[in-house]
Amino acid sequence: MTGEFRQAAGRVHDATSYHDVFLVADEQSIKTTYRRLARIIHPDKVASGDNAEASLVFDKLTQLYHQAEQAQRAGAFYDRASSLVFESANMRHEVSKSLDHYFDMTTGYRARSTKGGVATNSIIKVAQVPRDNELLAAEADALKLLAGAGKEHVGFFPQLLDSFAVADGRKRLRANAITRLDGFVNLEEVRVRYPNGLHPLDMTWIWRRVLWALGGAHDIGVLHGALVPSNILIYPAMHGVVLADWCYSVLRSNGHYPQLKAVVGARRDWYQSDILKRQAPTTAHDIALAARSMQFLMGGMKMPNLMEQYFIRAARGDEIKSAYEMLAQFDAVLERLGAPYYPRVFRPLNW
Question: Does domain 2-73 have CATH number 1.10.287.110?
Answer without folding.
Answer: yes
